[in-house]
Amino acid sequence: MSKTDTTDTTDTADAHRGAGDEAAGADLSTAPREETVGGPTLGVVGWIRWFWRQLTSMRVALILLFLLSLGAVPGSLIPQTSADELKVADFKKAHETLTPVYEKLQLFDVYSSVWFSAIYILLFVSLIGCIVPRTWQFVGQLRGLPPGAPKRLTRLPAYTTWRTEADPEEVRAAALAVLKGRRFRARATGDAVAAEKGYLREAGNLLFHLALIVMLVAFAWGQLFKSEGGKLVVEGDGFSNTLTQYDDFKSGSQFGVDELEPFSFTLDSFTGTYEKSGPQRGTPRTFEAAVSYTEADGKDKKAVIRVNEPLEIGDSKVYLIAHGYAPVVTVKDGQGKTVFHGAVPLLPIDNNITSTGAVKVMDGYRNKKGEKEQLGFKAFFVPTFAGAGQGSMFSQFPALDFPVMALTGYHGSLGVDSGLPQNVYQLDTAKMTQFTLDEGTGVAKRLVPGETMTLPDGAGSITFEKDIKEWASFQVSQQPGNGLALAGAVAAIAGLTGSLFIQRRRIWVRAVRGEDGTTVVEMAGLGRSESARLPEELADLAVALTDQAPPAPEPTAPESVDPDTAESEPAEPEPAEAVADASEGAEK
């Protein structure tokens, strides 16, 4: 036989020997097996099958998940129409060149854009197409039995062997008991025992992907049926959960107004305390709103709403999100008639609650000529004034230590009769004339609680009352998918933990009678992936098995002869040589 023939025969034998070992671990995974499809033979059905295999592969699912995360980045960096239309309008004015490009790419409506929806739907289909066949294959593995032992256990990555005087049947029975005691699925097959463990790894993998689907469903459900609105409430005032009561309101496309939870509440008081010294001076220490609320049953209840501790009423949650001051002012006309009296909420512009706003007198005022007119005042309020001549008028501390309010007055038309909506915290002075004062700065005057600013030419007066109320801003939201999303996230973490830390492995124990009459015991293990724990577990199982099948004593080796001694001492002659020597001596 030529050298080439010998090599070919050896390669063929090696291939046959390796086939059984590969088959032993081939079904450790439930990943779909890819089949090579020749390009020229693909028809319409073939291309559809190829596309479906690619879409439902784990590789494509991960790519789509990455694209979904990447697609959400513009939604976080660029103002979204669904969240704040005013910010979108301001962005468009400031970036006239980028605006057409962003509009073409739907970057102002990322989460409802065509491309984001396409990624979302493809990921959803990919996960379902990936999970369903793997689930059925996994169920089939659970119903099946551990495969028989390969012919050559020595080829497996973890292997050990020893000889014992116990019978092969006793060894196999002991191995079956040990493996079942370690929660392996085990069975005796032929001259070996086959066992398998670690099915929760694939169960965790399937749970993880199923949890991703749950989270996608929860996200879609929450976006379609959510509602969210904001309301500023002054101490002593109330709120009823109806659409007309909200300062701003937005909802999903499938949300109906009749789905608003029926309740109302009154802000009894707001309590805020702040750190007075140190590097954290001005940091809130107490930030809570005491409310009285009524649900559909009509019973009055009390509650305290804190940051991250919302009031839960049915499916709605009431969050405390902001706080400020509402100075009480009284406006009188030239005849001393009160035309306005109430608390005016002012909006903070810094962490020390320096606030700005407007006082608007729309009805009931007449000037000294008896003509109907409207009054407006720009207000600038600081809860803690630094003092005259101490720089700009900005608050030094959030608490009401030294409250001061500066007012600038206007008269004319506020523009509220035009039918166009106005910001209640801003004053439109396009059709108004500013009052010029004899005192103060000439246009404005600083007031402390209890002081009055007299308007010129007998136009009236405005008084900064000593009563300064506080307001709290609340967000009322209904997110029907939050609980489902949380359950999906917890399940995803649990599934990922199982798929990462649980190893799928198989153990085989073979016991056969050796040529010398003892029993040869072989143990080998195979894992789905390489792990240092598999040899350790196999060693632990071997130790447990040797308690019932102890190693046989090694045969005594013959005594060795020291070479040096052999050279120094003459060897004894063989019997034939001794007879020859005796014959020669007799002849002599």
TrEMBL record:
<feature type="compositionally biased region" description="Low complexity">
    <location>
        <begin position="576"/>
        <end position="588"/>
    </location>
</feature>
<feature type="transmembrane region" description="Helical">
    <location>
        <begin position="206"/>
        <end position="225"/>
    </location>
</feature>
<feature type="region of interest" description="Disordered">
    <location>
        <begin position="1"/>
        <end position="34"/>
    </location>
</feature>
<feature type="transmembrane region" description="Helical">
    <location>
        <begin position="60"/>
        <end position="78"/>
    </location>
</feature>
<keyword id="KW-0472">Membrane</keyword>
<feature type="domain" description="ResB-like">
    <location>
        <begin position="58"/>
        <end position="538"/>
    </location>
</feature>
<keyword id="KW-0812">Transmembrane</keyword>
<dbReference type="Pfam" id="PF05140">
    <property type="entry name" value="ResB"/>
</dbReference>
<keyword id="KW-1133">Transmembrane helix</keyword>
<protein>
    <submittedName>
        <fullName>Cytochrome c biogenesis protein ResB</fullName>
    </submittedName>
</protein>
<feature type="transmembrane region" description="Helical">
    <location>
        <begin position="483"/>
        <end position="502"/>
    </location>
</feature>
<feature type="compositionally biased region" description="Acidic residues">
    <location>
        <begin position="561"/>
        <end position="575"/>
    </location>
</feature>
<dbReference type="InterPro" id="IPR023494">
    <property type="entry name" value="Cyt_c_bgen_Ccs1/CcsB/ResB"/>
</dbReference>
<keyword id="KW-0201">Cytochrome c-type biogenesis</keyword>
<feature type="region of interest" description="Disordered">
    <location>
        <begin position="543"/>
        <end position="588"/>
    </location>
</feature>
<feature type="transmembrane region" description="Helical">
    <location>
        <begin position="114"/>
        <end position="133"/>
    </location>
</feature>
<dbReference type="InterPro" id="IPR007816">
    <property type="entry name" value="ResB-like_domain"/>
</dbReference>
